[in-house]
Amino acid sequence: MPFTEDNYEKALISLFEGMGYQYLYGPNIERDYYVPYYEAQLEESLQTVNPKKPHAAIHEAIIKLRNIDMGSLVQRNETFTDYLQHGIEVSYFNGKEMRNEMVYLIDFEHTDKNTFQVINQWTFIENAEKRADIIVFVNGLPLVVVELKSPSREETDASEAYLQLRNYMKDIPSLFSFNMFCVMSDMALSKAGTITSKEDRYMEWKTKDGNYESTEFVDYDTFFEGIFQRERLLDIIKNFICFSKEERGSAKILAGYHQYFAVKKAIERTKHATVSNGKIGVFWHTQGSGKSLSMVFYAHLLQQELSQPTIVVITDRNDLDDQLYTQFSKCKEFLRQTPVQANSRENLKELLSGREANGIIFTTMQKFEESDEPLSERRNIIVMTDEAHRGQYGFEEKVDATTGKISIGTARIIHNSLPNASYIGFTGTPISTKDRDTVEVFGDYIDIYDMTQAVNDGATCPVYYESRVINLNLDDATLQALDDEYELLAEEGATTEQIEKSKKEMSHLEEILGAPATIDSLCQDILKHYEENRQYELTGKAMIVAYSRPVAMSIYHRLLELRPKWTDKVKVVMTGSNQDPEEWHDIIGNKQYKKELAKRFKDDNDPMKIAIVVDMWLTGFDVPSLATMYVYKPMSGHNLMQAIARVNRVFNGKVGGLVVDYIGIAKALKEAMRDYTGRDRKNFGNPDIKGMAFTKFKEKLEVCQDLFHGYN
Prior knowledge:
By secondary structure, the protein is α/β, with parallel strands linked by helices.
């Protein structure tokens, strides 16, 4: 007998009952079908959660819930989410005077004081009469809508459940004013997302206990027990759902399972480190898997678990500082405070000394310098360092060969400045086995979420490699010397000007890479590849990584000579200099112009489709529709892995990202993969576009074979 949707619904209800939920059959409940929540249960639960509050206060809270009807669905939902996470401030007359108090919708500290119910066939009437499959209620509030599809009907799947949920949001939007997240499931596949999530951002929950080293396919009970254990559900609702203020409006974000469990581990390690050696550990989650948001969730939970510490977020570049600061600022309501940026060492000291607790302060490593006096000796400071492996975090002293001056590593300077703080490092790439400084600063790994798991989960796309090396007559020794030079400069925290100076010293290489005939061959081949692949699956935006600023300008001019109508399609994004030729200024533009280009490039509907870069946009810059990167610049190590990760973001219809190599980075790519997990080295250590094409061909062939099953 086939396992029908009705059978599946009953199995899920039984699963919920086993987790301590009360089951109710919707049609048997006496209620007003025009009210989205369970009124009688709500009032009873609020009295239980707020035992010392008078009926008048409870009544006012319910009125506020009833009147959540202003603005868009997302705005109403944001208001309710704030009420749910932090309580409702009410005013009422107690017979003598007006009183202001907080009424809480959930008791997050005492799970058993809340009422958990699973109700099927709950009918609600608004623009139309609709009946949801399963709704999870907490204290009478419809917090989770579960839409099911039959596991035995081939014509339906979880994607159809997603479309059904979107239709519900149009037909009965008030139900979703009170929604925390949604679930779509056909037994074989279960995913969760929010009211703003596109289908490709609905994610599986692949573990009950945080062990996800080898999870690719999981049973439905793992998904539901992983999320809906009562205490965990309340934890997710309070601490792992937030709104991010984007330019197009607020986006509601539900943490992925890897973020949830990793942040919980980090909090426990932090509690131990603050009373011991100050080494919290290293949080390695592969690029594109939501590391910045994990940092937001961690910072939020720190405030509650560690008596409101001051958080100092350190990056190694101003642009990364701006990007991370912007992400935190978008979530300031969730964080319950506004992050600030320190614009100098003196300002950093003022920001630290002007408070005894709280605060999220962003700064760069360059704000720290050798000094006899620490910036602060407080113990309740947590230092969060982004990309904690670049080499600038050294402890060792170095002697200048020319002057004989002794300088100490940045890590030592930071530790001397904040001697009693605790330190955690966040990274998207692994720590080198040769890198002892990072472990010395931060401690061991807290959690690892590798490339393989991220791709399996759909958190990132696979990245493939294609070699189209044009004849440059460069020997390996020259390329290796260049790699070594850049690595050395990067480790010493070189500025853009220093790197540019180094490139000028390698003028013979500049002449080869920038020769008109070479640039012509390069541009001709890029155009051929780009235009051919627009017809197939590798659509989306493209990025050309140029060797130097002059080479970038040469590529730009030659592309426009070959495609004169592409003036709005191709743009150069790089830093400017006072010594630049006059004609460059209009092309490069000022800081505001670059911000506008970034906004345009992130908009998949904008005509700007190709960005030519040198160093900018290669780290911390997310463009989901970016599918192809043309590399005409030697890169290695972490810099290489961070750069190619620009094309691994998930986007609707995107099957993967492609790195097209014109300079010979294959060896560097294999070297960079050396410190990754064993399965990452196996799956991505030698990526191949032909292998991807063959895999896709086999998938399509299997579909065709299924269509013609039974026919000769």
